[in-house]
Design a protein that fits this description.
Glutaredoxin, five-stranded mixed sheet, Heat Shock Protein 90, alpha+beta, elongated, 17% strand, 9 helices, four-stranded mixed sheet, 3 domains
Length: 371
């Protein structure tokens, strides 16, 4: 604020941003006005719109820096790099308008009212902006809690369904189930129960903040062995059988060890295979492969021959609650891939999707660090 005579017949608002040149402009403008005042009542208010864009919108400022002559009317805006030169050009006209306004009977009170009203408008605009930000933050927190619950519901479905299938098989088989099969089904149900418990812990932990990474217990991992275990998972095999689909494995025997959390990566593989089964038509083929991408990374891919993902959407599908239009009538919340991305990033890896090579479909790929 330029400390000049008040009440000010000439009221100016200088709109700037956080660029270094703005500070120099403010100093030069204040110096110019001090030089030209000579008894003229002038008030200059500097408004930094960087953190309060609502003020620029309120006064219809579309470019910074800009100077708004608020009083005397009519309002006038000048903007651009040569702002000081433009002020010089308009100064005599503004002073003449100001002297004319001061000579009008009863004008001093209306001028005070105008200045007070403008200050109140700015104060109220700041308050509205602050309340709007608080409202947005609260809405985001509620929205994130919804996403956490959606993750919990989505990713618990697979292990709970697998447990249910194992128990139903035991129940229907009765005395005809051999001790070996019974032991295998019971072990499978216990593994899935532990998986479900881990998921609950993970997602509730992640629910503290949308920016919190999953805590991982990374260690030496036989990735090839894990891929085979996931491919032979009871739930996965049951889903493949229902749609008469074929799963092809291309996992080299000499695949190097990786540094990863086994249960987290199992969760990613199950999710990607589950999606591939979902989008591959009955009788289709799914391929899970692994390769040495570099000396420091191993790459795993799950490829289907479904409808594929449009190129412009291949990044968006990894966002929470994002769903393709064709999924609108499907079950689930569309957040499984977002969870996969958070897990892979916690391993300092990458995950992405490409078009399937040489055929229709999608190829989801992720990398893990070599042990």
């Amino acid at each position: 604020m330029l400390p000049l005579a008040t009440p000010a017949a000439l009221q100016l608002l200088l709109f700037v941003d956080d660029r270094p040149s703005s500070r120099e402009l403010v100093r030069d403008t204040e110096a110019m006005l001090q030089h030209h005042v000579r008894g003229q009542a002038v008030q200059l208010q500097v408004i930094d719109v960087t953190g309060q864009p609502q003020l620029a919108e309120l006064f219809r400022i579309v470019l910074t820096p800009a100077l708004l002559k608020l009083t005397p009317p009519p309002r006038q805006v000048i903007a651009g790099k040569n702002l000081l030169h433009q002020i010089e050009n308009h100064w005599q006209d503004w002073c003449q308008q100001s002297r004319l306004r001061e000579s009008l009977p009863g004008d001093e009170q209306s001028l005070n009212d105008s200045i007070t009203g403008t200050a109140e408008i700015i104060r109220l605009a700041d308050e509205v902006f602050r309340l709007t930000q608080e409202k947005s933050m609260l809405e985001e927190r509620v929205h994130f809690k919804d996403r956490v619950l959606a993750m919990l519901a989505h990713d618990l479905r697979n292990p709970l369904t697998a447990i249910s299938l194992a128990l139903d098989t035991i129940d229907m088989g009765g005395a005809n189930i051999t001790p070996e099969v019974f032991s295998q089904l019971l072990k499978h149900a216990r593994v899935k129960a532990r998986t479900a418990d881990l998921m609950i812990t993970d997602i509730l932990e992640a629910g503290r903040s949308s920016n919190v990474q999953f805590q991982t217990k990374r260690q030496r991992l036989q990735l090839a062995e894990l891929c085979h275990h996931v491919a032979n998972d009871f739930y996965i095999q049951e889903c493949l059988s229902r749609k008469e689909q074929r799963l092809i494995l291309d996992i080299p025997n000499d695949l190097t060890l990786v540094f990863a959390d086994e249960e987290r990566i199992r969760q990613v593989l199950l999710n990607l295979l589950g999606n591939a089964i979902k989008y591959t038509p009955p009788g289709g083929t799914i391929e899970m492969a692994a390769m040495h991408r570099t000396s420091q990374k191993v790459e795993v891919s799950v490829t289907d021959d479904g409808p594929g993902v449009p190129a412009e959407l291949r990044e968006q599908i990894f966002e929470e609650r994002y769903r393709l239009e064709r999924d609108d009538q499907s079950e689930g919340y569309g957040i499984g891939l977002a969870l996969c991305r958070r897990i892979i990033r916690a391993h300092y890896g990458q995950i992405w999707v490409d078009a399937a090579s040489g055929k229709q479909g999608s190829s989801f790929r992720f990398t893990l660090p070599v042990y």
